[in-house]
Amino acid sequence: MTDLMTPKTPQWWKKSDVKKTFILWIICTAVIGYVGVEFHVRNMVDPASETMSSVISLMRIFTWAAAPVAGLVSAMSLTVLTSKRHYGDNPPAEADHEIRNSPKTAAVWVVVSGLLCLFALVGGLVVLQHDNEAILDSKAIQVNVTGQQWVWNFDYANGARSEDLYLPVDKPVVFHITSVDVKHSFWVVQMGIKMDANPGYITETAVTPNKIGVFDVRCAELCGLLHAYMQTKVHVVSQADYDAWLNAHAAMEAGA
Amino acid sequence: MTTLTQHTSTAPGKSIIEKLNVFTALALGVISAVVVWRLSLAFLPQDGEEVRLFSREDKITLLSMCAWFVGFMTGIGALVGPMRWVMGKDLAHDENMFLAGENMGPKRYFRYTTDHKVVGIQYLFITILIFFLGGGLAMLIRTNLGTPEGGWLHAQAYNSIVGTHGILMIVGTIIMVTGPFGNFIMPIMIGARDMAFPRLNALSFWLIVAAAVPLIWGQFIGGITTGWSAYNPLAGQAPLGMDGYIMYICIFAISTMVAGANITTTVVKMRAKGMTWNRTPIFIYGTVASVALALPAFPVFFLSQVLSAFDRALDTSFYNTAGGGSGWLYENLFWIMGHPEVYVILIPAVAALMEMAPVFTRRPLFSFNIAVLGIAGISGLSVLVWAHHMYISGWAPLLNAPFMLTTELISIPTGMLFLVLIGTLWRGRIWMTMPLMSIFALLWNFMIGGVTGIYLSDVPADAFLHGSMYVTAHFHYTLMGAGLTGALASLVYWFPKMTGRMFDKTLSWIAFWMVQIGFNVAFIGMFMVGLAGQPRRVESYAPTFNTANLVTTIGAYTIMIGMLVLLHGVISSARNGVKAPKNPWQAKTLEWTVDYPIPLENFDVLPVVTTDPYGYGKAKS
Ligand code: HEM
Ligand SMILES: [Cu+2]
Ligand SMILES: [Cu+2]
């Protein structure tokens, strides 16, 4: 803030202006940060995995990191807007200065935005790294996911097959995703994972569900006529229930 | 002039140039299309058993559309100049004056007219038309989404409306600043008599008209059911309407390339004496950055669609995995165009507001150098970020981190644009006009668009947000909240120079507030449903999303009313608005030094520039 008062150019600021802006800056930052975080967190679904929880905390952190910048722009705008305004068809008098730049302000501005970038990048990379590790987990359950206009099919290691997804709680699971026709996108909403289903390729993503319950699977890539209806449920159940379900379904497949 | 009277008096011998206009073009286009359609119906071999669905119909449709295109462009007179040149008889001066529309009255707007001011008005007209068509479709979408169950529109019609809305609006926003103002105002602003290539200028406009017809045609043969991005392999199985999209894009891409070469050359070669780069207005930088960015991007778009057409009509497999191709190829080509394209849209709009900022604050532009640097930085980086649209495509997971880096770096030059605008407002004299308030609106909307862009650029967060309504809200904040806001301000600001009359002040305010409030209501609602998990491009949704969708729909209707008020303002002010003085805003760029009506070649004596146009403030006045 102090930099706005570059001493070389005394006409550019009035102490009262800067003071006012500073106070507004604090207020705007607090309001934008708080409202921004609440807006995101309240509207986002309740997490059903660690992955989703970390998405929510990322949004929280990013919003607070962006708030001072957004707050400064808002505060300066408000100061300007609440200063003397001129209405009418003819222009107001010329400004009482002719300042064309302030290298220091520019430098600070660029450095700060660079640091914020770096911060966002590091935050993202840390979480990304964490997510990727799950794919390599050798104890993970493997499920094959096949998108098809306009249903999802799930194939389990023991030969079971279903259109609703069943998963045990607290066990890492790796999805191998493909499609038989056009591109779809496999989105397990409350678990915060999404991966496109491409015809002819197998893509992978992984997650560890940490809550028992029924959650949503939706298609997130326009895939034709009934794209809006290409959704199903994921049932996260206890290990015992899962085993029972799996065996029953494998037997059904074998019988069929 | 003498030749003109001479020609009209010898009516039977009228030269070909004088006979051609939009009606001959339409006629020739339709006739060519019908002839080629009948011929290809008669002579194209039937599809074999093993050939994919639609292939023959695709060939027929594409051939007929090409015939329309060639017929229309011939009929409008695009070939007259080149043909004459081939025959060794270049156009005479009188003929060039005729082409420029000298003393022709309103008729020149319906011809292959080369005067940049005519082309600017033509662009303005078609931009408005596109926005109202696209806006009408948006209202259909929002009405359908007013209730969760869908089905008010048939699912196929709904998908087609979404796709057509998208591509219409993208094209509309691409041309909304560089078309009307880049053509009408820019040459005068740099003190030139016309564009570097006046005939190419006419060409770029009429190509857009030629492109529009296949898009409309496509609506009647199955529609564009793939969304504006037309991903393959979905586009490969889409109905014949897809061929309309392909032709539309190909012709529009040519138009953009032509306009880009023309505008760039004009700015580089034709600036007034003394207008060094340091004295060149920032709007000129914005315009050049925009078209120069389009120059490499649009050939890629063109190519991506040509390959798409091959896959559909000739059974090639560029995008078909089973045949050795890949849908990922399409996605890459599309976004290599697609991300630069969003800055093609944004940069000139922001630059226009930068041009207005000193005028309405009566102080110099803050940090001209930073403004130029910001524009250059965005342009440079924007070609290196395309794969942020493909984080979760599975195409190359290892590339996610580097693309996350480049994407987040873009916020540095973007921040510079903010600094310039806010720095100019700071300690200025605030002249409350609609263009000035638009700067505040842009700061607000673009801040939301930019910050949500950072969330989206973060790979783990994007794994949740991608493909959801959140993305839709993000890009509307940037395209509409920032881009369109700048374009509407430009309209009000340059209206006096373009029509000789002031834009009605009250109407401009009403429109401004309705559009801005409606916009923020509509797209805040869209962020909410995105966060809650509603995918985009759906015709029905879970009942839990209903409230926020309804909010969005209400916001959308508010925008519509605001836009109708604005349209009313355009028409009524152009007809009987207050006569404008030569320089109503007391601005210092060159376009305000010419009288209305502006003579054919703008300046009797070409101006000589000795300072930059930002000499406001105490010391100068
Ligand atoms: C300030 C910097 C910006 C950043 C960091 C940013 C980032 C992103 C990212 C990461 C996406 C992909 C989201 C996804 O599909 O999951 C995206 C989508 C998009 N952005 Fe931005 N963006 C920025 C500014 C802009 C601007 C200025 C515009 C337009 C004027 C724009 C228009 C779009 C469009 C049209 C899409 C989505 C296209 C589609 O999927 O149909 N963005 N943006
Ligand atoms: Cu889908
Ligand atoms: Cu992008």
TrEMBL record, chain A:
GO BP terms, alphabetized: ATP synthesis coupled electron transport
One Pfam family it belongs to: COX2
Domain Cytochrome oxidase subunit II copper A binding: 138-248
Predominant place of localization: membrane
Subcellular location: Membrane
Keyword Membrane: yes
Alphabetical keyword list: Copper, Electron transport, Membrane, Metal-binding, Respiratory chain, Transmembrane, Transmembrane helix, Transport
Membrane topology label: Multi-pass membrane protein
Cellular component terms per the entry's GO annotation: membrane
Protein's UniProt keywords contain Ribonucleoprotein: no
InterPro entries assigned to the protein according to its UniProt record, in alphabetical order: CcO_II, CcO_II-like_C, Copper_CuA, Cupredoxin, Cyt_c_oxidase_su2
Transmembrane segments: 21-41, 61-81, 106-128
A molecular function GO annotation: copper ion binding
Similarity section: Belongs to the cytochrome c oxidase subunit 2 family.
NCBIfam families cross-referenced by the UniProt entry: CoxB (TIGR02866)
Protein name (record): Unannotated protein
Organism annotation: freshwater metagenome
Lineage, broadest ranks: unclassified sequences, metagenomes, ecological metagenomes
UniProtKB/TrEMBL annotation, chain B:
Location of the Cytochrome oxidase subunit I profile domain: 108-610
InterPro entries in alphabetical order: Cyt_c_oxase-like_su1_dom, Cyt_c_oxase-like_su1_sf, Cyt_C_Oxase_1
Keyword Disulfide bond: no
Entry GO terms, CC: membrane
Transmembrane segments: 20-40, 60-80, 118-141, 161-182, 203-225, 245-270, 282-302, 333-354, 366-389, 409-426, 438-457, 477-495, 507-530, 550-571
GO molecular function: cytochrome-c oxidase activity; heme binding
Keyword Transmembrane: yes
Biological process according to GO: aerobic respiration; electron transport coupled proton transport; respiratory electron transport chain
Protein name, UniProt field: Unannotated protein
Origin species: freshwater metagenome
